[in-house]
Design brief:
Number of helices: 6
CATH topology: Hypothetical Protein Ta1238, Chain: A
CATH architecture: Up-down Bundle
CATH superfamily: Cobalamin adenosyltransferase-like
Strand order of the largest sheet: 1-2
Order of helices and strands: EEHHHHEHHE
Helix content: 55-70%
Low-confidence stretches: none
Number of domains: 1
Largest sheet: 2 strands, antiparallel
CATH class: Mainly Alpha
Strand content: 5-15%
Structural class: mainly alpha
């Protein structure tokens, strides 16, 4: 099977179920943002060796993101849910919260804003965090026009928190001090 179909050459694509829409349709924007985020997660995984802390949960996050993208690409989930079993894994959001709480317990409490950066891994986590927030805004925009599961919105919101804490935690693991932002004096 060829990777190209030429069906999108006129600026349209198909949602799951066959409905054709413009490539800038809010559903396409939302699941495209999730796809971009998943690619950042793949790059983060390149920085973590086999068996390394966080690797297993990142692989689960990638699966969650593919599920979310599939749900967002499906305008009538009820028609295909039995076929695809489109739902997040049970306790996906609380699993993120558990990791966030565990890592955060090892960190110095924040007293000011921090500048994104530090180690390569931390920097990639900050990029994933901002990509996650972008995806969240696209999903919220879609939810103003169509029904989106509150579970998806909660998961994506928590996921950006996860990447923020992962960035801080990975910097701490390498002994890298965070750069605090205190504003400019006039």
């Amino acid at each position: 099977m060829k990777i190209y179909t030429k069906k999108g050459d006129e600026g349209e694509t198909s949602l799951f179920g066959g409905k054709r829409v413009k490539k800038d349709h809010p559903r396409i924007e939302a699941y495209g943002a999730i796809d971009a985020l998943n690619s950042w997660v793949g790059l983060i995984l390149c920085e973590i060796p086999e068996g390394g802390e966080g690797r297993k949960i990142l692989l689960e996050i990638q699966k969650d993101l593919l599920t979310i993208g599939s749900i967002l690409a499906t305008p009538d989930v009820d028609k295909v849910e039995d076929l695809l079993q489109l739902s997040l894994r049970k306790n996906a959001t609380s699993s993120l919260e558990g990791t966030i709480d565990r890592w955060e317990s090892e960190l110095t409490p924040l007293k000011s804003f921090i500048l994104p950066g530090g180690t390569r891994l931390a920097s990639l986590c900050h990029v994933a965090r901002t990509s996650c927030r972008y995806a969240e805004r696209k999903i919220v925009g879609l939810s103003q026009k169509e029904t989106i599961s509150p579970e998806i919105l909660a998961y994506i919101n928590r996921l950006s928190d996860f990447f923020f804490v992962m960035a801080r935690w990975s910097n701490a693991q390498k002994g890298h001090l965070e750069a605090e932002w205190k504003g400019r004096s006039r």
